[in-house]
Amino acid sequence: MTPEPQPTGPSTPAGPLVRLKNVNKHFGELHVLRDINLEVSRGEVVVVIGPSGSGKSTLCRAINRLETIDDGEITIDGKVLPAEGQGLAKLRADVGMVFQSFNLFAHKSILENVTLGPMKVKGMKGAAAKELAMSLLSRVGVENQAQKLPAQLSGGQQQRVAIARALAMQPKVMLFDEPTSALDPEMITEVLDAMVLLAKEGMTMIVVTHEMGFARKAADRVIFMADGEIMEQATPEEFFTNPQTDRAKDFLGKIL
Ligand code: ADP
Ligand code: MG
C-alpha cells in the first residue's frame, strides 16, 4: 500500500483536519465505537446526533485522547494522535473541548479561567494572555463578568466562558459534547448563538447536540450514530426531511 499523502507544513494545509480511520473502542464487552471512519474538513461543522449510549461522547473523548482507542488511527491536521507524552499535550492543544458541565475552576476568576491555559501550556505572558482572554470573553458577551467567580454567573454565562477558555488555546478544531443540555431553556439560545457565530467565522467544529435549530443553521453535515456506528450522514436538510434508516426515523420521531 502506498502511504497517504501528508501535509508538508502549517502553511500548506491539505487533507482533512480531523480523520478517524477504522477506529474501534471497547469498554469491557461493550463495543462502543465500531469501525468509525470520519473525515472533517477545515471549516466544516459536523453535528453528531443519536440515542443515548450510542458512543457520541466516547467519540469526542477519543478525538481529544481523553479516551484511548483499541485500534485504528486518529489524525489531527495530518498528525497521528499519539497515546501519550509531549506530542500528545501539543496535539491536544489543537483540539478544544466544551462539555455538558462547564468544568470551570471554581476558585479562580473568570479571567483566570481563560488565561491559565495559554500561560501554562503555551507559555504566553500574563499581559498578552489577559488581552486575548478579554477579547474572547467579549466575543461571547461576558466581558463584564471577568472578575467574578464561576458560581456568580448563570449556567449560560458559564458555558460561554467555557467556550472562551477553549478558544484561548487557539485550537484548530472545537468539540462540543451536548453543550446546552445542562442549561435552563432560556439560556440555551445565548450559548447556541455564540456557537453559530464561531461556525460562521470558519471554525472547524464537531458538535454533539440534539438542537435541530443549531444543526439547520450551522451544520454542513449531520452524522447519526447508533450502537457505536455511524449509521447515516447527510446535510441537515436531507437528514431531517428524509432519514434513510429505521433507527434514524425512530430517533427523530422521538425528539422532533
Ligand atoms: P453517548 O454520549 O452517545 O450517550 P457514550 O459515549 O457516553 O454515549 O457511551 C457509550 C456507551 O459506553 C454507553 O453504553 C456507556 O454506558 C458506555 N461507557 C461510557 N463510558 C464508559 C466507561 N468509562 N466505562 C464503561 N462504560 C462506559
Ligand atoms: Mg454523551
Automatic annotation (TrEMBL):
<keyword id="KW-0067">ATP-binding</keyword>
<keyword id="KW-0547">Nucleotide-binding</keyword>
<keyword id="KW-0472">Membrane</keyword>
<dbReference type="GO" id="GO:0005886">
    <property type="term" value="C:plasma membrane"/>
</dbReference>
<dbReference type="Pfam" id="PF00005">
    <property type="entry name" value="ABC_tran"/>
</dbReference>
<feature type="domain" description="ABC transporter">
    <location>
        <begin position="18"/>
        <end position="252"/>
    </location>
</feature>
<dbReference type="InterPro" id="IPR030679">
    <property type="entry name" value="ABC_ATPase_HisP-typ"/>
</dbReference>
<dbReference type="InterPro" id="IPR003593">
    <property type="entry name" value="AAA+_ATPase"/>
</dbReference>
<dbReference type="InterPro" id="IPR017871">
    <property type="entry name" value="ABC_transporter-like_CS"/>
</dbReference>
<dbReference type="GO" id="GO:0016887">
    <property type="term" value="F:ATP hydrolysis activity"/>
</dbReference>
<keyword id="KW-0029">Amino-acid transport</keyword>
<comment type="similarity">
    <text>Belongs to the ABC transporter superfamily.</text>
</comment>
<dbReference type="InterPro" id="IPR027417">
    <property type="entry name" value="P-loop_NTPase"/>
</dbReference>
<protein>
    <recommendedName>
        <fullName>ABC-type polar-amino-acid transporter</fullName>
        <ecNumber>7.4.2.1</ecNumber>
    </recommendedName>
</protein>
<keyword id="KW-1003">Cell membrane</keyword>
<dbReference type="InterPro" id="IPR003439">
    <property type="entry name" value="ABC_transporter-like_ATP-bd"/>
</dbReference>
<dbReference type="InterPro" id="IPR050086">
    <property type="entry name" value="MetN_ABC_transporter-like"/>
</dbReference>
<dbReference type="GO" id="GO:0015426">
    <property type="term" value="F:ATPase-coupled polar amino acid-transporter activity"/>
</dbReference>
<keyword id="KW-0813">Transport</keyword>
<dbReference type="GO" id="GO:0005524">
    <property type="term" value="F:ATP binding"/>
</dbReference>
